[in-house]
Amino acid sequence: MATLSDAQPKLRVAVLVSGNGSNLQVLIDAMQAGALPIEIVGVISNNQDAFAISRAKDAGINVSVLSHVANGKRMALKTFEKYAFEQLTNWQPDLIVLAGFMRVLSANFIEYSPAPMINLHPALLPAYKGLDTHQRAVNAGDRVHGCSIHLVTAELDSGQVLTQAVLNVSPKDCAQSLQTRVQKLEHQLLPWTILLLAKGVLPLNNDDYSPSAYLPNLPLKLVL
Ligand code: GRF
Q1: Single pTM value for the model
Q2: Is 121 designated active site?
């Protein structure tokens, strides 16, 4: 049976991770099933203990571990970025996905990135940029919460938001339960967003987001 991936050139995707890598796994599974027209050309982890590394290796994907701490010493951001840039340039991705990548990249790295970058953020941007998003949503008594995928620009969590998945917060929710529930949304939002990017429905260029009278404004929202 012909699959989606047979029908068109594959988007070359590099993924940057720091931890468990459940979002990476979703992409691996979708790629292997032929549900996404992508090839994951490599994974970079800034954490040598990240379970995401095993997930990538098990799938036969190139992994580069650029640990942020080695022998008790923290790798300078400049050094990390030098190696990451070399590695990414080598892999020639069309798209770089930050999926649970917990190091803030410099404006210089972002500007000269070998491919456009998207980031998965566990809140409905522009609300709750940065960390502790679920606790902040609970503290504020928010009725809705969710996750966003946005283009990465020099300003933290501030690039064009492409897509969002939204859930209703229950009075019983705490930060932990929201994290679990939001992660389930992430696992749907990430492959859908990459499919839209791979098919050219969403443009990868930050300058291409001119409002259209015929199409709804971004972000596209998925309510689950
Ligand atoms: C995700 O919840 C993401 O929103 C946050 O880090 C988590 C990564 O999860 N930035 P995983 O490593 O993909 O399992």
Answers
A1: 0.93
A2: yes
Q: Which helix (H) or strand (E) holds 27?
A: helix 22-32
Task: Specify whether 15 is located in the same domain as 97.
Answer: yes
Q: What is the pLDDT of residue 5?
A: 47
104 lies in the same domain as 23:
yes
For the chain, residues with pLDDT lower than 50 are 1-2, 5
State if residue 21 touches ligand 1 by the CB under 6 angstroms criterion.
yes
Please give the residue range of the domain that contains residue 74: 10-115
148 SS3 class: strand
Q: Which of 23, 117, 124 to mutate to test the pocket of ligand 1 (most atoms within 8 A of CB)?
A: 23
Angle at 37 between CA 209 and CA 64, to 5 degrees: 90
Q: What is the mean pLDDT of the chain?
A: 92
Q: By the 8 A CB rule, do 102 and 46 touch?
A: yes
Specify the residue with its C-alpha closest to ligand 1, atom 4.
122
Verify that 145 and 224 share a domain, yes or no: yes
Model confidence pLDDT, tens digit, residues 66-89: 987 776 777 889 999 999 999 999
Selecting among 68, 121, 150, 187, the annotated active-site residue is 121
